[in-house]
Design goal:
8-stranded mixed beta sheet; alpha/beta
């Protein structure tokens, strides 16, 4: 069978589309399977290497050809690039355009006001994101890894980055596998692949070429995916125990790990937040582009002064633009990030805060996220399935004294025994001999000497193997015969435990009364044993997993598990943390589905198991296609692509570097309850942002409607351009406190997303309400105070300036809640103080030197009772319209 290893020479392009990436990954998978199936001699010939390795000259040539053995990490941008990205906002660009136009027309006041708003927004955004990225960078472990390579027949350690395809390497316990490799020989090799597959238990690796032909072919055919191949191992995994020699098949970006890392480099998909803010921005910009020319032409034709009409149109454009939107949004997000940092959460990207609040589906890996990623001894049972300390004692003695293939299971046994106070038990025994583990017998034994002088052989291993060498069993304190039907019953019980996600190991003993004269034992002595019981291991769920998931469900967030582990273990963990599994869908099933069919399946399926990294990412995209805002939580290499594809990627500080790099949020504590707090913070952040947008949109639309009406019948401009800018600046300042406002508890109960149509509808229905009272103010100023000619326009401007500013500021309190403001729902103290201060300052401006300088004049005291009546009427009507609007559209914020 031909193994097309030479294809690894192909270089990845700088950008690969999602479809092309899927094709490349399928080719990579096929190459790995071909490498597994090929005879060793064919593999070496294809790679042009020998069992004694490459010579140094050839290795240097290949290093030049293939490049260093590095994966494609995306480096943080330089500070100036990050600063420039802060300008990538529709409204920032519009404001900059207006700023330039103002500068060209020598409108200094407008330049100062607009430049100040843009500067504040950019500084807040840049400072927060730059600080967060630096914090995240500090979390990365910067270590150099070496590999034992054979070159020219000599074995030596070299930097992992210097490895090339065709190198021969040696592996031992504790080694990080430095590249994708084909095993040439292996002894008792266990590899931890949880970072790639999510499988909590180490897996056995061996050279299947040494097996008889039929068994070799069966082993290959059984493997459905590259990660299931017994004679292949992959970059990023770890040797738990044993030793091996292998040949390097692929390095760097051509490895399984590297292919995943490569797909992470480049532009991230647009998130829910970005799509929402863009949709809102463009609907308001389109509105501005329609209204400003209308106002310009009406004033130009009616007043005859086109230059003044142009300035007025420019001022209206600034007034229509929610110029503080970037500042308000960034302040809200930065405040949320600071609140999250107090919960020991690093927020790498500010908009992740709002995405967290909008999230209605959380996809999570199992191992290391829902579980502790730590094997514990869950059960130690006798033949009747009852908890037995005697079984634990024998298992402890076996694990305590064995020195060969010591692994996570032995550590779990010793740890549980020490918890139960059995740590001194070994003092009653002396070790005589050990019969090491091997993968043919699938068991290991120790022989200990009791103080009485007799020897006891304690054996533990796979249930089938243990029962095959046992002819009796321990029933209480009696030894009775072990019949075939009892063996079947014990196997059934073990299978039930497997279905519950436990890995089951049998324990048996043999007392050797005449063994005091012997010093060595062999596998031949493992016969005629007394079966004592069995022990079950589990990767337990985190203590915070169950309450966190319950809290997420209560807040309208569906939890879906996407894991590479098997379905039995996954079902057990899900049951323990309160997730209703239903039918578990396996990875091989979704490969046969179209994107549309997968979207339908993913929408109603809770748990997916035996997934590879690409399948996880595909499920995330399918859920997004159904309109969901999707979060993904994971900590392994196999989660990195999904972390980047999701609207919000969540990882932990113990995650692999590539997962932390792909995530938007990094949890520094093991407790998952911080997710609930983050979601609440995200919804509060969104609520305060949407308040500003709806307040500004409706208020600005109302002002434009008022200006449009005034322009039709007034013989002068209803307000000077500078008045509009000052009024707008004061109003914007009053809203700077909104990020610190309260949100009604009812608003925080369910996910919230951007809805441009809702904002447009809100603007059209609520905005004209203020115009009614603007027109009343026009009538008041024209007919009561006789400000109806160009000579008296300063008085008219002053009267409308105050009423317009106060009604705009009052709208903050009217719109911020569905309830009755000041009575049923009160704004936070910063909002109350700042809006009150701005209203007071607005009233004082016409009486000040500043007001005189911009063309305003003091108003008679008789104006103010009329003003109070107009504002009271405005509040009453707005509250009535609010109630009607909520009944009609079942929506407010």
């Amino acid at each position: 069978m031909e193994m097309k290893v030479n294809q690894v020479k192909r270089k990845w392009p700088k950008y690969v589309s999602r479809r092309d990436a899927d094709k490349e990954n399928a080719k990579l998978e096929q190459r790995l399977i071909e490498a597994s199936e090929s005879h060793v001699d064919d593999v070496l010939e294809e790679l042009k290497t020998k069992p004694y390795g490459l010579d140094e000259m050839e290795a240097m040539r290949r290093l030049e050809e293939y490049g260093p053995n590095q994966v494609a990490y995306e480096k943080p941008p330089a500070w100036y690039i990050q600063l420039l990205r802060c300008f990538k906002n529709p409204f920032i660009l519009v404001l900059l355009g207006l700023d330039v136009f103002s500068a060209l027309t020598d409108d200094t006041e407008a330049v100062i006001i607009i430049s100040t708003m843009v500067t504040i927004s950019i500084i807040i955004t840049f400072t927060q994101e730059f600080r967060s990225l630096r914090t995240a960078e500090k979390l990365k472990a910067m270590v150099k890894t070496t590999a034992a390579v054979i070159r020219g027949g000599q074995s030596r350690e070299i930097d992992m980055e210097q490895l090339v395809p065709g190198d021969m390497i040696r592996l031992a316990a504790g080694d990080l596998i430095p590249a994708d490799i084909r095993l040439l020989s292996a002894k008792d090799l266990l590899v931890m692949e949880s970072a790639l597959t999510g499988e909590a238990m180490p897996v056995e690796k061996r050279d299947i070429g040494v097996l008889p032909e039929q068994r070799r072919i069966k082993a290959i055919k059984t493997a459905k995916q590259a990660l299931e191949l017994d004679n292949m191992a992959y970059m990023g995994t770890t040797v738990v125990s044993g030793s091996a020699t292998a040949v390097v098949i692929a390095t760097g970006s051509q490895t399984y790990f590297g292919a995943m890392a490569h797909s992470l480099v480049g532009a991230r998909p647009m998130t829910s937040f970005e799509r929402g803010i863009n949709s809102v921005s463009f609907i308001l910009i389109r509105f501005m582009l329609v209204m400003v020319p209308i106002i310009f032409f009406i004033n130009g034709f009616s007043k005859g002064d086109w230059w003044d009409a142009l300035f007025f149109g420019l001022s209206v454009a600034v007034g229509l633009t929610p110029e503080m939107l970037p500042v308000i949004v960034t302040s809200n997000l930065a405040k949320g990030a600071m609140a999250m940092s107090r919960q020991k959460v690093v927020v790498k990207r500010l908009n992740a805060i709002q995405n967290l609040g909008a999230m209605n589906v959380l996809c999570t890996d199992k191992t290391g996220t829902l579980t502790q990623d730590k094997i514990i001894l869950e059960k130690h049972l006798n033949i009747h399935g009852e908890e037995s300390e005697q079984v634990l004692r024998y298992a402890y003695l076996n694990s305590r004294y064995q020195t060969g293939l010591r692994n996570l299971l032995d550590h779990a046994v010793v740890e549980r025994a020490e918890e139960r106070g059995l740590a001194g038990l070994d003092l009653d025994y002396t070790k005589v001999d050990e019969i090491p583990f091997d993968f043919n017998r699938r068991r290991m034994s120790v022989v200990l000497s009791r103080k009485q002088g007799e020897h006891v052989l304690i054996c533990k291993g796979a249930m089938e193997e243990m029962l095959s060498i046992s002819d009796s069993m321990l029933d209480g304190k009696q030894v009775v015969g072990l019949e075939q039907d009892m063996k079947q019953q014990l196997l059934r019980k073990a299978n039930e435990m497997n279905e519950d996600g436990l890995r089951v190991i049998g324990v048996a003993i043999k007392v050797l009364h005449d063994g005091s004269s012997r010093e060595s034992y062999s596998a031949a002595d493992e016969q005629g044993l007394v079966f004592v019981g069995y022990i079950g291991f589990l990767d337990p769920p985190k203590d915070s997993a169950a309450p966190a998931i319950a809290a997420l469900l209560e807040h309208g967030v569906a939890v879906k598990v996407l894991t590479g582990d098997n379905d039995a273990v996954t079902r057990k963990v899900c049951r323990d943390v309160g997730i209703d599994t239903g039918r578990i869908v396996l990875g091989k099933e979704i490969d046969e589905l179209s994107d549309t069919a997968l979207a339908e399946l993913a929408d109603k399926t809770t748990v997916f198991a035996k997934l590879n990294p690409m399948q996880k990412a595909r499920i995330v995209r399918a859920l997004q296609a159904k309109g969901h805002t999707v979060g993904f939580m994971g900590d392994g290499i196999n989660d990195a692509i999904s972390l980047k594809e999701a609207d919000i990627g969540i990882s932990v500080d113990t995650a692999v570097d590539i997962a932390k790099e792909s995530a938007d949020i990094i949890l520094l504590e093991k407790s998952l309850m911080v997710l609930e707090k983050g979601i609440i913070e995200g919804r509060r952040t969104f609520g305060n942002m949407i308040k500003y947008i709806k307040m500004t949109a409706s208020s600005n639309f109302g002002n434009v409607f008022s200006v449009l009406g005034a322009s039709l019948f007034l013989p002068f401009l209803p307000m000077l351009p500078l008045h509009l800018l000052v009024q707008n600046l004061f109003y914007d300042v009053s809203q700077l406190s909104i990020p610190w406002d309260n949100m009604d508890k009812e608003f925080l109960k369910k996910p919230r997303t951007w809805d441009a149509k809702s904002i447009g509808r809100f603007m059209l229905f609520i905005g004209p309400t203020s115009s009614i009272f603007d027109f009343l103010t026009y009538g008041l100023m024209m007919f009561v105070f006789a400000a109806n000619s160009p000579a008296d326009q300063a008085l008219f401007h002053s009267g409308w300036f105050i009423e317009g500013l106060l009604s705009q500021t009052l709208i903050v309190h009217m719109i911020r809640t569905e309830k009755v403001p000041f009575i049923q729902s009160r704004a936070s103290l910063p909002v109350m103080l700042l809006t009150g201060l701005i209203m007071l300052a607005g009233i004082m401006i016409p009486f000040s030197e500043f007001g005189e300088g911009i063309g305003l004049v003091p108003l008679p005291l008789s104006y103010f009772p009329w003003l109070a009546a107009i504002l009271l009427g405005y509040c009453i009507l707005t509250q009535s319209v609010k109630k009607w609007y909520i009944r009609r559209f079942n929506d407010w914020l």
